[in-house]
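Supplementary notes (optional reading)

For those who missed the lab, this is the record we used. Protein: Trk system potassium uptake protein TrkA. Length: 457 residues.
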Amino acid sequence: MKIVIIGDGKVGYKLARQLSADDYDIVMIDSNERKLRFAIDRLDIFCVHGNGVDADVQKAADVPHADLVIACTSADECNMLSCLIARKLGARHTIARVRNPIYFKQIGLLKEELHLSMAVNPELIVANDISRLLLFPVASKIETFVKGRVELIEFTVSEDNRLVGMSLAAIYKKFQIKILVCAVEHEGKVFIPDGEYVLQAGDKLHITGAHEAMEAFFKMHGKRQLQTKIKKVLICGGGRVAYYLAARLCKIGMHVKIIEKDENRCEELCDCLPKVTVIHGDATDHDLLSEEGVENVDAFVALTGIDEENIILSLYAKSQGAGKIIAKVNEDRRARMVADFGIDSIVSAKTATADAILSYVRARKNSQKSANVETMYQLVDEKVEALEFIVKNETNYTGITLKDLKVKPNNLIACIVRKRQIIIPNGNDSIEAGDSVIVVTMEKHLEDLSDIIAQVQ
């Protein structure tokens, strides 16, 4: 599969790194020679120097024979025009990163006119991720499958948690709630547990199930965060993520305050978000944060354009007693460094964009196989993948009970959704044609559901 990536920024480089590792034929276009040299030295890809909206440059990158063109420069207009030219030259599919709220509001029309296969809005994706975390504050990360009906939640087991010392089998038996622990991160090691695993303080768990089952489970073992709904939210930074997030939170009745140091941007936010309190000022001024009541907010969200600033602001807010702490950190290395600093949740527009595009690429590649990849997320610093497959027709593994299917090590069938019914499977359940099947795996590059089946007994 030949893929051309236009734009060697953070998103473009991350996509090139992951797709080239998956053995896709990758060509990258960028006007910055230094960035291209950096990519060539580290990745097995071909690079073309030039402007992505130049048809001659696209021809040099062999766009006319490309299966997919991904335009992810910093300029929406460049991305959309690049995709239009690529389709005119013969590219089979195109994806554009479109971030401007005005453009994205009419994305249906633009997709049709520009013949886009997909449009990705990183800031909107991140805003939706944050809003889910605020609605379910016990979680440090939430991913969704089957159009939001199934959740994959990450949370850390505290020392005072009554589950400490219990095996997973004992937990399932005692609580009788349909959830499943899919992956555990313990002292830096990641694995898919069996029922004999005993939970320990500090374990980071990834749990799947329906939202209602998750709520019931956490309430049963006494998570106090669930008892207090988040009402007051303080956002530092008034960029696009803040706009999308504030608009969403206001609709569900939360009181939102945004601190933004650019006066013109403050005026724009006041015009388009009349229910939001917008403060003109520098969020790094701790006196201003105190005046705005940082110690009394239920949630603090750091969304400035600088990772280090978001980290420092979050740590300060935590020291002052703010409730749920969320920081936007786009650089992977920085996110790993601060994972244990006490920040409740870290979100990344770069990662959200890459996951959305990788899901599409996997789906296109295996469209002729027995099961399509519908959704994909990378967990635990890309050590684990969670994938949603849609089983298109009957195969050698459908209609057979799971106890008679031998699944390869380090793979787990976590959930089956059949006609809106959510099934946390046991040995007596089976996979049927039409099912959505969620798989958690420590293997990379799964393309078909059959890849995890060792044999049928």
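If you only remember one thing from this example: The first strand starts at residue 2 and ends at 6.
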